[in-house]
Amino acid sequence: MTLLGCMALGKRLIVSKVSSVTDYLKDKKEGVLFEPYNPEDLAEKMQILLDNRELVKKMGKKARLTVRKKFSEPLMAEKIKETLKI
Fold first, then answer.
1. Cα separation values, 33 from 29, 73, 83, Å
2. Is 65 exposed, middle or buried (0-12, 13-18, 19+ CB in 10 A)?
3. CB 82 within 8 A of CB 49
4. Alpha-carbon distance 66 to 63, whole Å?
5. Cβ proximity of 66 and 30 under 8 Å
6. DSSP-derived secondary structure letter, 6
7. Per-residue pLDDT tens over the stretch 4-40
8. If you write DSSP's letter for every residue of 39-83 in order, what string do you get?
9. What is the predicted pLDDT for the residue at 66?
10. What is the pTM of this model?
């Protein structure tokens, strides 16, 4: 939920590439993903963010829109309701 909260606020994200994250965030679309336990990859991705202000702004906007379109509380509640109707 913290991830979605940050996305909803349009925060620029750099997070470890794990399955629970990749369900919500696409690399260099809503944020930047780095390989777990790989400090060199993390450093490289941090540099990408530092060097590309326009990309950073676009990712923040895209993250906010993604939450509104796919993961808002009303949408998630409806999906839970549909799942429970099985």
1. 10, 25, 30
2. middle
3. no
4. 5
5. yes
6. H
7. 999 999 998 999 999 889 999 999 999 999 999 999 9
8. HHHHHHHHHHHHH-HHHHHHHHHHHHHHHHHH--HHHHHHHHHHH
9. 94
10. 0.80
Tokens representing 8 are 């909803």
Burial class of residue 31 in the structure, from the number of CB atoms within 10 Å of its CB (0-12 exposed, 13-18 middle, 19+ buried): buried
Say which residues have a Cβ less than 8 Å from residue 34's Cβ, sequence separation at least 6. Answer: 14, 15, 16, 17, 41, 42, 44, 45
Compute the C-alpha angle 65/38/12, nearest 5°: 20
Domains of the chain (ranges plus CATH)?
2-84 (3.40.50.2000)
pLDDT band at 86 (very low <50, low <70, confident <90, very high): low
- Pair of tokens at residue 31: 């944020």
Nearest CA to 64 out of 22, 12, 7, 15 is that of 7
Rounded Cα distance between 7 and 71, Å, is 10
